[in-house]
Amino acid sequence: MKLWSIRGNSQKLDGGAMFGNAPRAMWAKWLAPDEQNRVPLACRALLASPLNGKTVLFETGIGAFFEPKLRERYGVQESEHVLLESLKTAGFDHTDIDVVVLSHLHFDHAGGLLAPWSEGKPPELLFPNATYVVGAEHWRRALQPHPRDRASFIPELQDLLQASGRLELVEGEYSKALGETVRFCISNGHTPGLMLAEIVGPEHVSGEAHGGVVFCADLIPGRPWVHVPITMGYDRNAELLIDEKRAFLEDKLARNVHLFFTHDPECALAQVVRDEKGKFGTAHEVAELTARSLAA
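The structure corresponding to this sequence follows.
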């Protein structure tokens, strides 16, 4: 099996919102803000093939579904659907994808499911041959969002996914589409039912899988958020997220599971480390993955 990091449309968002509980003097050293106080963010997907005999895409980024006014509001930098071009560069087309795994349905993670915006044209799903894998708890949130995060969802998307006949809602650790090759765990600090997907590693020690890769989604958007106390203003429950993050990182460190970052503009993959004071950090950072072996 090989892994590719697939770039989608990039964003610039307010740094204070992205580092909600950290002062500007700190976070400006991690991601340099522009004149509008916005920091650069990637929307990076992970492609794995063959995985359980299938070509699997983990998330789709923000895509190009926004009309121009909203594209500007949310800091989307490109008008074209960058993910589709990145897939082609890697040697794939969106029609080649057998499974799309979505950690959650906020527009910066699921918007790439939709074709680019065109005036007067209704939203249209891409990936016509794929099973769409979504956590059941988060699906319920998407159908009845709270006022706090209602604007983070694409109103038409849930109906389109349901009408496709290719939606799988995951209740436990594994999905029908991927079997035991991908293990899911749930986080609730950012949004209810956020589903973290771990590609199970090739090594097994005392019955536990070691050496895999986990898609960190918005539990840990990039390297600065590996520091346990750092959270986003967008998180629904910061204290819960911190507790979840600590347990998550302890587990990944113990099992040598590498972290895949969706929003870090310069780093796709890194190994978890912890210093003598107990602070988590990263090492062996990789900017992009191109047909990389899971065991590499």
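The helical segments are 15-18, 24-30, 68-73, 82-89, 107-110, 136-143, 157-164, 238-254.
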